[in-house]
Amino acid sequence: MCELSLELNRQIGILADRKGNVQYVIVGDTQEVFIPSLDRFQLVPGTLRGLRLLHTHLKGEDITNDDLTDLALLRLDSVTALYFNSKGHPDGMKTAHLLPPENASFYDYLVDRDPHRQTVHYKEFITELEGEIVSKTKRLHKVDGENHALLIGCYKSKAHAEENMAELSELARSANMYVSGEVAQMKDKLHPKYVIGSGKLKEIVIRSMQNGVEYLVFDNPLTPAQAKAIADFTDLKIIDRPQLILDIFAKRAKSNDGKIRVELAQLKYLLPRLSQRDDSLSRLTGGIGGRGPGNTKLEIDRRRINDRIAMLSGKLKKIERNRDTMRSKRNKNELPIVSIIGYTNAGKSTLLNSLTQSGVYADNLMFATLDTSSKRIRFPEERDVIITDTVGFIRDLP
Q1: Cα within 13 Å of Cα(266), Cβ side
Q2: Which of 116, 306, 330, 354 is the most exposed place for a label (fewest CB within 10 A)?
Q3: How many domains does the structure of the chain reveal?
């Protein structure tokens, strides 16, 4: 490698697995090597990828920030820079590896500097290091079995950021997510591709990998192109605020009417995204943001989804006709209807239960109630009233 690198005046690298098998050979330029897609080597959050990068440095320069970024973003076992003399003979090396969570830095270096005399048994070292990373990552997770998420938002003012982040945190908790942290960036204009800047996104990915985060939850609505670009960049599951709310709806809807409305909303949300058949959705299959129709729709073409939307819309019209009939009967009986309205999780269901001595489901969660409940109450003046609990309000409801 060193001789060829001297001859070509280009960096040359290999990606090798833990058995020593060379999986990729890379020829770069004078400054760096460009690592190909590593889709064949799937990454489990909180672990390493099982590949080490060894590549030449032409001028004896130290391991660069780009090397360290590749190490962190791709979760490589290690990155080694190889140095050589004027005859192309190797005469030095430097190897960086990741550190477990809770360390001041996310990386450190091996003691070995001589490529001909290795004192560290590499395979034993990396296996032990990965075990420690997995163990400490699990210990950071306060509740086993929850989906760990990092909340991200880009705002124009700090006051707006605090308010929105608090609400997004409550939504994530209601979706059974454990919030590992929050990142709010103040910018006048959103990045057209990544929403936040690419430099900030690199920091987020390194932080996510260090803490075993599986989901990046954006408060800003993402276009299909943005969701795909961020998913490709981070190799994490990406969902935005509308998708998170729709997922809570899919989980809480119990009545036939509620389920139809939620599925219709999800299909309309997914339709423009399915045309790109992007990986950001396929990563979500079976998890947060993938409930309801989302977990099979990547295989269904636009025509079939439009047919499904038309069919569900027809069902809703029938339900609305039935409701009109029921409403006319109530009007004949001259029963006043009182609706309790307000922000989600403000206590509407609790108030209904207190007034009517009923047992409607109430909890300290966003959108705990997704199906309206109506109860009859008699006032002391022998007057009957129907009290209805409604679905709560929220900012930017999809």
Answers
A1: 28
A2: 116
A3: 3
Q: Are residues 233 and 370 in the same domain?
A: no
d(CA 238, CA 168): 15
Place of tokens 């605020």: 241
One-letter amino acid at 284 equals L
Amino acid 240 reads D
pTM listed for this prediction: 0.69
Chain position carrying tokens 């994490």? 236
At 395, which CATH number? 3.40.50.300
Q: Is residue 317 part of a domain?
A: no
Residue 65 lies in a domain: yes
Cα distance between the two ends of the chain: 55
Q: Is 335 left (phi over 0), alpha (psi -120 to 50) or beta?
A: beta
Token match 């490529």: residue? 115
Q: Cα–Cα distance between 358 and 21 in angstroms, integer?
A: 67
Phi, psi of 342 (to 5 degrees): 165, 180
The 10 Å Cβ neighbour count of residue 5 is 21
The pair of three-digit structure tokens given for residue 247, joined into one six-digit string: 């997922």
Residue 111, domain extent = 2-140
> 133 and 72 in one domain?
yes
Phi, psi of 297, deg, nearest 5? -75, -10
Q: Which two tokens stand for residue 47?
A: 């672990």
Give the pLDDT band of residue 378 (cuts 50, 70, 90): confident
DSSP codes of every residue in 261-310: HHHHHHHHHHHHHHTTT-HHHHTTTTSTT--GGGGTGGGS-HHHHHHHHH
Percent of the chain with pLDDT strictly greater than 70: 90
The CATH number of residue 248's host domain is 3.40.50.11060
Q: What is the mean pLDDT of residues 216-225?
A: 90
Residue 39 lies in a domain: yes
For 74-129, the pLDDT digits (tens) are 889 999 999 999 999 999 999 999 988 777 788 899 999 999 998 999 999 999 99
The answer to whether the beta carbons of residues 130 and 48 sit under 8 Å apart is yes
